[in-house]
């Protein structure tokens, strides 16, 4: 009761506020001198098969009837809706026990022993002969010497029942999972067969694009998520795109970046059965492994080809995690000036654009405010940068990281198909390495303990095998021969640049240069001094940390 009400108990008026009756004397109702009794009511959140549990309301009615019959007044009703077997905290149970053990209330009423606790004798021995607890169903009283043995026996019976039930449920679920049955609610875009509990794509049309009144199926939305993320769209951008188009999620709510991520990382869309690790990682499902350490399919064999292909799913996850960068730069309208796209104003970090015969700070050129707008005569700065570029290549050894980066970029220009395969392989290598690192971090944190212990060795083997395969693939693609860069080395770089057309000139500089930062001239009419005003950031191999990355993040 949320408000103060007047309750009739055995013909007596009893003033109550909430679930606790007003008391002024220790252990005695002030209205008529009857002793107090508390009611402890419990019903499990999950009613197991074959178990007929009395409702909370029915238990309370029986408790109040017992109080009337035996001359007690109900002081407080403690209600629980959770399990009594496990390490679940029971604050109401603890409070009720504290009240009866310290004499605050003379009696505690419980419907049945298994409603009190299923931890066996350890739960009931402390109250025997010390505090009065009534177990109504069994008609037992903890203060009655003749009931002591019965209470202990019944408590142990309840404990054995819970252990047997837990074992049977665990074994049954394990068997069902080994058969590939999906025991929980199917993820978005999938549907579980009523009898077999195997998953399949959900092709049921539902109105999800509000603006155009167009119908899509949940599976169409899932396949689009994987396709767009694999193509380089960020999860945040895709969520924004869905919301702008009026596409609703399965709950009718807006999409968020973490909603997109939850779809991409879920192995079920490839047809794998999963389990939730629980705790802080409950939103990152992991593969279910049977006793042999094998993954289990949750789809029928004829449905498997309809699921998300493994390579598409892996690519989407690499892109989303940042292990693979997709270049979506349009090829049309490509800049042809030697330093276009490479130059930055040191003051505002904005790009410098060619305006007439000079490169100028883009913000200043657009009418914005820049504290120290940089400007440089095109011929002078290009001549300086080309000289620095040629000299750096001349001094580079074969194993110089710069030359590795140059080789990678030259291969991308001249053999784009092969370069794409290498990028995929290196991205997979990075993702595999991170997976193994994550395993070691989880292992060190104690994740693989208890029920999760059986996953430790299979997860370790899977991570190591993935890394071995990724390393072998990279070796296979990159070990077939060296990239010939003799035209840029041994003093030929500047000669090669002068013989090239404008587009190739820009590409040649881009092989070795990440960015060029220019400071403001010290004064009007001053002779250009590249050594004082220009900072060149040289290229680094793909995947390596570079000053250019730091520059871009700062920008």
Count of individual helical segments: 18
Query: According to CATH, what is the class of the largest domain?
Result: Alpha Beta
CATH topology of the largest domain, which one? Rossmann fold
Uncertain spans: 1-24, 46-52, 327-334, 545-555
Percentage of residues in helical conformation: 40-55%
**CATH second-level architecture of the largest domain:** 3-Layer(aba) Sandwich
Q: Classify the beta-strand content into a percent band.
A: 5-15%
Derived from helix and strand composition plus strand pairing, the structural class reads: alpha+beta
Structural account:
The protein has 555 residues and is of the alpha+beta class. The chain has three domains: 5-162, Rossmann fold (3-Layer(aba) Sandwich); 190-321, Hect, E3 ligase catalytic domain fold (Alpha-Beta Complex); 333-396 and 489-555, no CATH class. The chain has helices at 56-70, 91-101, 113-116, 121-124, 148-178, 218-230, 235-245, 257-264, 310-321, 362-365, 378-395, 401-414, 416-444, 456-478, 493-499, 502-512, 530-533, 547-554, and strands at residues 5-9, 12-17, 20-21, 36-42, 73-80, 107-110, 132-135, 140-141, 190-192, 199-201, 206-209, 214-216, 274-275, 286-287, 343-345, 352-355, 358-361, 375-377, 513-518, 534-538. The strands form seven sheets. The chain has a five-stranded mixed sheet, with helices on both faces. Helix 7 (235-245) packs across helix 8 (257-264) and helix 12 packs antiparallel against helix 16. The radius of gyration is 36 Å and the shape is elongated. Mean pLDDT is 78; it is low at 1-24, 46-52, 327-334 and 545-555.
């Amino acid at each position: 009761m949320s408000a103060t009400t007047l309750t009739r108990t055995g013909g007596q008026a009893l003033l109550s506020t909430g679930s606790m009756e007003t008391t002024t004397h220790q252990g005695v109702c002030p209205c008529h001198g009857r002793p107090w009794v508390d009611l402890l009511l419990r019903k499990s959140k999950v009613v197991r098969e074959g178990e007929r549990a009395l409702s909370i309301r029915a238990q309370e009615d029986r408790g109040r009837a017992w109080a009337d019959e035996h001359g007690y007044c109900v002081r407080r009703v403690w209600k629980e809706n959770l399990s009594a077997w496990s390490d679940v905290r029971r604050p109401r149970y603890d409070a009720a026990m504290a009240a009866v053990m310290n004499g605050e209330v003379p009696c505690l009423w419980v419907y049945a022993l298994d409603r009190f606790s299923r931890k066996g004798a350890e739960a009931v021995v402390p109250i025997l002969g010390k505090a009065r607890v009534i177990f109504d169903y069994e008609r037992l009283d903890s203060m009655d010497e003749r009931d002591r043995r019965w209470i202990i026996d019944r408590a142990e019976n309840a404990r054995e029942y819970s252990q047997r039930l837990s074992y049977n449920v665990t074994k049954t679920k394990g068997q069902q999972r080994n058969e590939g049955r999906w025991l929980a609610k199917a993820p978005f875009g999938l549907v579980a067969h009523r009898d077999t509990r195997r998953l399949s794509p959900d092709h049921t049309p539902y109105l999800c694009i509000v603006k155009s009144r167009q119908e899509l199926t949940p599976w169409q939305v899932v396949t689009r998520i994987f396709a767009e993320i694999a193509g380089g769209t960020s999860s945040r951008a895709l969520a924004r795109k869905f919301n702008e188009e009026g596409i609703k999620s399965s709950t009718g709510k807006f999409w968020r970046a973490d909603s997109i991520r939850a779809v991409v990382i879920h192995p079920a869309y490839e047809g794998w059965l999963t389990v939730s690790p629980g705790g802080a990682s409950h939103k990152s499902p992991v593969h279910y492994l049977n006793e042999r350490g094998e993954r289990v399919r949750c789809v029928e064999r004829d449905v498997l080809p309809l699921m998300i292909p493994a390579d598409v799913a892996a690519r989407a996850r690499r892109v989303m995690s940042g292990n693979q960068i997709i270049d979506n730069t349009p090829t049309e309208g490509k800049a042809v000036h030697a330093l276009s796209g490479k130059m930055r104003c040191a003051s505002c970090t904005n790009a410098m654009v060619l305006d007439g015969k000079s490169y100028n700070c883009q913000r200043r050129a657009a009418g914005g405010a820049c504290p120290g707008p940089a400007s440089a005569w095109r011929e002078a700065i290009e001549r300086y940068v080309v000289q620095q570029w040629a000299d750096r290549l001349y001094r580079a050894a074969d194993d110089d990281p710069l030359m590795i980066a140059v080789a990678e970029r030259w291969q991308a220009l001249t053999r784009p198909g092969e370069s794409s395969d290498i990028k995929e392989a290196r991205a997979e290598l990075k993702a595999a390495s991170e997976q193994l690192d994550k395993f070691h971090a989880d292992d060190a944190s104690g994740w693989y303990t208890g029920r999760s212990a059986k996953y430790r060795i299979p997860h370790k083997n899977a991570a190591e095998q993935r890394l071995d395969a990724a390393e072998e693939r990279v070796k296979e693609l990159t070990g077939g021969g060296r990239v010939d860069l003799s035209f840029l080395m041994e003093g030929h770089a500047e000669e090669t640049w002068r013989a090239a057309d404008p587009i190739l000139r820009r590409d040649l500089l881009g092989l070795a240069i990440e960015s060029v930062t220019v400071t403001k001239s010290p004064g009007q009419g001053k002779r250009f001094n590249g050594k004082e005003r220009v900072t060149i950031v040289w290229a680094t191999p793909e995947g390596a940390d570079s000053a250019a990355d730091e520059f871009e993040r700062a920008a």
